[in-house]
Write a structure and sequence with these properties.
This protein has 181 residues and is α+β, with helices and mostly antiparallel strands. The chain has seven helices and eight strands. It has helices at residues 7-19, 37-52, 64-70, 88-95, 110-117, 139-150, 167-175; strands spanning 25-29, 56-60, 74-78, 81-86, 98-104, 121-123, 131-136, 157-163. The mean pLDDT is 88.
Length: 181
Amino acid sequence: TVATFSNGMKRRLNIALGLLHEPKMLILDEPTVGVDPQSRNAIFESLDSLNQSGVTILYTTHYIEEAQRLCHRVAIMDQGKIIALDSPASLIRDLGKGIIRMEFNARIDDKLLNQIGQVGLVRDIDGDKRRFHLETDHTEQASGEILELMKTQEGLLKTLDISEPNLETVFIHLTGKNLRD
């Protein structure tokens, strides 16, 4: 019986039932919630095949990496309104900002913080000024400039991590909040 099916099997069955009448459009509301990685990949492969055969898929998800992977066009919504609509690649390119995350072994002074602020937009400074991130259009150049600044601050920089923009970065930039907020 269906009651004994795994979540992945139930999700795939729901999709199969939705396809029985050979629709031109398939509407899926978070089809991978509670699904194991193997079932998730099987769903992705099925959706890709359906889309290539001409079926339009309206896909809602809180998993932004899924939208980036599967969708040709993405609508980002905030408080019930569409605030961006384009291909994932275009949305990412338009943002153009990479993130440099920094953590220090001690509190940094305002002078050094201002110098780092000349390199890019300083965001999310924690209360003790030991962790924050920097948004910049040129992560490679900016990280080099930061490392040059750190030469005079021996042992102060604990970690420096560079992230190129992705669809989640775009979402956070446009809405000002993480998905869970």
